[in-house]
Amino acid sequence: MGWKTLDDINLNGKVVLTRVDINVPVADGVVTDATRIERIVPTVRDILAAGGKPVLMAHFGRPKGQVVPELSLRVTLPALEAAFGQPVIFADDDGGKRAGVWINNMKSGDILLLENLRFNEGEEANSPEFSAELAILGDVYCNDAFSTAHRAHASTVGIAAMLPSCAGRLMQTELGALESALGNPQHPVCAVVGGAKVSTKLELLGNLVSKVDHLVIGGGMANTFLAAQGVDVGKSLAEHEMKDTALEILSKAKDAGCEIILPSDIVVAREFKANADHQILPVADCPSDAMILDAGPKTTKRINAVIAACNTLVMNGPLGVFEMEPFQTATFGMLDQIAARTKSGDLISIAGGGDTVAAINASHHGDDFTYISTAGGAFLEWMEGKTLPGVAALEA
Q1: Crossing angle of helices 169-178/41-49, nearest 10°?
Q2: Is CATH 3.10.20.30 the right assignment for the domain spanning 185-383?
Q3: Which of 150, 154, 254, 355 would staple 131 via disulfide (CB 3.0–4.6 Å)?
Q4: Contacts of 95 (CB under 8 A, 6+ apart)
Q5: Where are the domains of the chain?
Q6: Catalytic site includes residue 377
Q7: 298 catalytic residue (yes or no)
Q8: Is 270 a catalytic residue?
């Protein structure tokens, strides 16, 4: 760990510029899911407890360097105040006040929110000038937004070079969880990777085969690997043009001693809809006019046996079309096993990605993983073995 935490810097009386991710869903002017807001509460509370003055910096939507009123962070104030249990000052420009004036007027115990950083084109451009404008507002920089750490922006990289910098509690927790999953894990390690396309997760698969002992591939990605091995997958979603790439990944896995687990039996249907007529068949017997929509019970049993023998698991993607009955069976059956092993203290389980989190929540196991990341692109890039600019900036 080459980065500091809130415990390593004297925050008493200091203005702490705190990069957070509160890019939350909104409908009719109301935040509909405050999960990301709730996750920054420990950082803000610890800054306040240490005598610091937290100034929250965030983006919202994609205004592309323009002031777009409907993308103002003002909409998050009620949810922020509910999460913190106190008022939050919003530093807009009403009455001609600039951010610095608002900050200078802060009292001990106050929390202040700056307007959408992406209203300034210098944010996404990582402009030295905008970075300096931000840095001059505070004494300490705290990055608590792992989900934006894969972006080299002014508020994630530029400002870190200009102020004493540290990771917030959420960032600290996320990095610690990921380190335990892939950096220095307890073997045996199992990775579950699903989703529609191999082409979107090439770097991920290439990185994982050299780091894990078992790699479970599900969803449309599994169909591509099956087709590459000569299996007729009928009308299933598959990237037939990725045959050579799939075979290369299988070869690399064999050389690395990584077992790749693909479906041995499948659930097929001729219509892509909930409760469609379906069959459970050996993988070699997929009808030419049918689609593979889930892994079968023998495959699920095999996956669960592997999970039962592992100490660490990382998940990014479901095994089938979990959104539709009855094609969630394999995904939910696997999640039941992961949850049971995690709750018994026998498994470190880390999951991330939009579809993954949705599947976990749908199976009612949202509280049963060691850690569930709300970071999308940053989580994926970390799993791919890439250096994240926002993390590197803290280490520097």
Answers
A1: 130
A2: no
A3: 154
A4: none
A5: 6-169, 185-383
A6: yes
A7: no
A8: no
> What are the φ/ψ torsions at residue 301 (nearest 5 degrees)?
-60, -40
Query: Which one is catalytic: 13, 51, 183, 354?
Result: 354
The active-site residue, picked from 19, 36, 53, 341, is 36
Q: Which residues does 128 contact at the CB level (< 8 Å), separation at least 6?
A: 158
Q: Which residue is catalytic, options 197, 270, 298, 302?
A: 197
Q: How far apart are CA 278 and CA 295, in angstroms?
A: 12
Phi, psi of 105 (to 5 degrees): -90, 0
pTM of the model: 0.84
Active site residue 234: no
Spell out the per-residue pLDDT of the chain, length 396, in tens.
579 999 999 999 999 999 999 999 999 999 999 989 999 999 999 999 999 999 999 999 999 999 999 999 999 999 999 999 999 999 986 555 688 899 999 999 999 999 999 999 999 999 999 999 999 999 999 999 998 999 999 999 999 999 999 999 999 998 988 888 888 899 999 999 998 888 888 888 999 999 999 999 999 999 999 999 999 999 999 999 999 999 999 999 999 999 999 999 999 999 999 999 999 999 999 999 999 999 999 999 999 999 999 999 999 999 999 999 999 999 999 999 999 999 999 999 999 887 899 999 999 999 999 999 877 788 888 888 888 999 999 987
CATH of domain 6-169: 3.40.50.1260
